[in-house]
UniProtKB/TrEMBL annotation:
Name this polypeptide is given: Alpha-1,2 mannosyltransferase KTR1
Organism: Exophiala bonariae
Domain of life of the native organism: Eukaryota
Gene Ontology biological-process entries: cell wall mannoprotein biosynthetic process; protein N-linked glycosylation; protein O-linked glycosylation
TM annotation in the entry: 7-25
GO molecular function: alpha-1,2-mannosyltransferase activity
Biased composition (Polar residues): 74-83
GO CC annotation, single: Golgi apparatus
UniProt similarity note: Belongs to the glycosyltransferase 15 family.
Region (Disordered): 54-102
């Protein structure tokens, strides 16, 4: 009992002295903390960021990045402190948030084909790629469009990309019907595909896009200065950290083409693609590499196509199509290979046959067939550790340890790699690669 009331008394004394000390501090001549915050605010202005701060337009304040900047720069809380705005965020300059990874950079860039209306889907993709990888590497980013980019697109993408951004317009010859295409015939095909409900079967712009990605993007003047590219499409989801530089991996290991998912193409969109390919093989045997991956494409030594392709491309974004379905795709490759005589001869041979318009050839099977036939097997790489989502398929790395180390947020049972509709097993078998530990559990 006695010790209990003694403790009680001590608490009261403690509280009393505490209040006394606080009183002395508040009335003493110790400098107040407020001026130094104001000073910091003066130094940390939003002008440090490359996005120019201008007053937000009245009609769309919420979507405007300037409005967001304004929200962070609150009004001065004390009128005597003057006009410098007080930031309500921790005062760190943005560049300090992402220390660059050590080591040299490869001659490489991200590349994105987009329209102005894709801005928010693209912003999401950039943010994912920056957070998981590029914030530490600061690679450049090239944006291409068949129309000029508008101010909003440029402003937002510039603020998100940690490297330099480049904006280019696609020359009209790369985004239109070539002279030899019979317009009547092409229109009849689109009408027929519309009736048969083939996805994007009636879209003209989708066809221009597939042809552009197959044969022209790597020849755009903005890409001449680079050796490697990484294609990023709208609404990409990256599930894991990318703990090394994939560009450097490609260069150090002399890889020319890479993938994370592979699957079978819709046969209705490419009925004569293999006939055209065989025609090219006959006309240009010099371009077919002796150590090719024909076994990835064909089960009968090249007579027929098994429809396998690496998922590389064919973005399906709302603005290029009338549908809301999306495909977010992955592709890291060597631009000099795409600019080689072998690849250009292959593309031009296919283009002459007209299947981009008389059927609906996608750039994924075109790139995949080219990589499989023109490159030695060793030049194609499967990135198990880059986790990617491509509607409706997920590549979630095989291997429990790997997923934990990379801080992945994908469900391993969603992994598509070893399922029946994937061609990835075929790639492993053909290259005599051993599959990652645990693959049987996901088949
Ligand atoms: C990057 O690669 C391109 C294409 O191969 C080349 O033209 C350019 O000179 C290279 N740039 C540097 C800095 O090496």
């Amino acid at each position: 009992m006695a010790t209990g009331s003694g403790r009680y008394l001590r608490y009261i004394l403690f509280a009393f002295f505490g209040i006394l000390i606080l009183y002395f501090i508040s009335t003493s001549s110790l400098p107040s903390y407020t001026p130094s915050i104001a000073e910091a605010a003066g130094k940390l202005s939003w002008d440090d960021i490359k996005v120019p701060v201008t007053p937000p337009p009245a009609e769309k304040p919420a979507a405007d990045p300037d409005a967001v900047a304004d929200a962070f720069t609150s009004k001065p809380q004390n009128p005597q402190l003057g006009t410098s705005p007080l930031p309500s965020i921790t005062p760190l300059s943005p560049s300090e948030l992402s220390p660059a990874a050590p080591g040299e950079r490869v001659n490489a860039t991200f590349v994105t084909l987009a329209r102005n209306s894709d801005i928010w889907e693209i912003a999401r993709s950039i943010r994912q790629v920056e957070d998981r990888f590029n914030r530490n590497y600061n690679y450049d980013w090239v944006f291409l469009n068949d129309k000029p980019f508008d101010d909003q697109f440029i402003k937002i993408t510039t603020s998100l990309v940690s490297g330099k951004t480049h904006y280019g317009e696609i020359p009209v010859e790369h985004w239109s019907f070539p002279s030899w295409i019979d317009q009547k015939k092409a229109e009849a095909v689109r009408e027929d595909m519309r009736r048969r409900k083939i996805i994007y079967g009636d879209s003209i712009s989708y066809r221009h896009m597939c042809r552009f990605e197959s044969g022209f993007f790597f020849r755009h003047p903005l890409l001449h200065q680079f050796e490697y590219y990484w294609r990023v499409e709208p609404s990409v989801e990256l599930f894991c950290d990318i703990h090394y530089d994939p560009f450097k991996y490609m260069k150090d290991n002399k890889k020319k083409y890479s993938f994370v998912l592979s699957l079978y193409e819709y046969v209705e969109t490419i009925p004569t693609l293999w006939e055209s390919t065989k025609k090219f093989i006959k006309a240009h045997p010099e371009h077919i590499h002796p150590e090719n991956s024909m076994a990835f494409l064909s089960d009968d030594g090249g007579d027929t196509y098994n429809k396998c392709h690496f998922v590389s491309s064919t973005p399906m974004t709302p603005s290029f199509t009338t549908n809301t379905y999306q495909w977010s795709n992955f592709e890291i490759g060597n631009l000099d290979w795409l600019r080689s005589k072998a690849y250009i001869d292959f593309f031009e041979s296919l283009d002459q046959d007209g299947g981009f318009f008389y059927e609906r050839w996608g750039d994924a099977p075109v790139h995949s067939i080219a990589a499989s036939l023109l490159l030695p097997r060793d030049d194609i790489h499967f990135f198990n550790d880059i986790a990617y989502y491509h509607v409706p398929f997920t590549h979630c790395p095989t291997g429990d340890d790997l997923r934990l180390k990379l801080r992945c947020h994908c469900n391993p049972s969603d992994n598509f790699d070893w399922k029946g509709y994937s061609c990835t097993s075929r790639f492993f078998d053909l290259n005599k690669l051993s599959k990652p530990v645990g693959w049987e559990g996901q088949a």
